Amino acid sequence: MIMQITQYTNEVIKELNRAASLISEETAQSLVDRIMKAEKIFVAGAGRSGLMMRAFAMRMMHMGLQVYVVGESVTPGLAEADLLIIGSGSGETKSLLSMASKAKSLGAGVAIATVNPESSIGLLADIVIQIPALSKDTSDGGLTSIQPMGSLFEQSLLLLFDSIILQMMDKLNLDSSAMFGKHANLE
Fold first, then answer.
1. What is the pLDDT of residues 71-110, one digit of tens each?
2. Per the database record, which ranges form the SIS domain (predicted)?
3. Distance (Å, rounded) from C-alpha 135 to C-alpha 133?
4. Could you tell me how far CA 78 lies from the centroid of its own chain?
5. What is the rounded CA–CA span in Å between residue 22 and residue 89?
6. Which alpha helices (H) appear in 63-149, and where do they start and end?
7. Class of domain 5-176
8. What residue spans of 22-46 are helical by DSSP H?
9. What is the pLDDT of residues 81-91, one digit of tens each?
10. Which are the catalytic amino acids?
């Protein structure tokens, strides 16, 4: 039987509530602390996860942080005082694994938000935030979702990072009006 759109929406919200309640506060807090200490912050992700990482970068830019999306032509080199944050459900995406390895070899910090903390990138990272959801290629572990592929992970990624932004806004005593001054104005 086909559900109504609002029924689907309510089911998605239930899934997001469940996933959010299982994210480690301590690990998320360690990411907040590390971001605030970083000289420059770099974000990376592939596909829809990459879009969530771009959204996170945009909000950090609105806060006045020095943040870059890996792969953009204006992204500078990464250095020891910097932090690379990766969003990857599987934690196995080859291009992201290569970035994480390079960042570690340069002495920079590496953080990942992932379904799989024991992934190749998870094992390299200094901070691993496990998001209890399915990635696009995961079908085991007893987790279920009405949503296709990695949707629950990607939505959880956005909510986690928006919540991190809210906490950093509190710590830096920023509000939306202060951040709006850094919003794009050539649109």
1. 999 999 999 999 999 999 999 999 999 999 999 999 999 9
2. 31-174
3. 7
4. 18
5. 16
6. 94-105, 120-124
7. alpha beta
8. 25-37
9. 999 999 999 99
10. 154
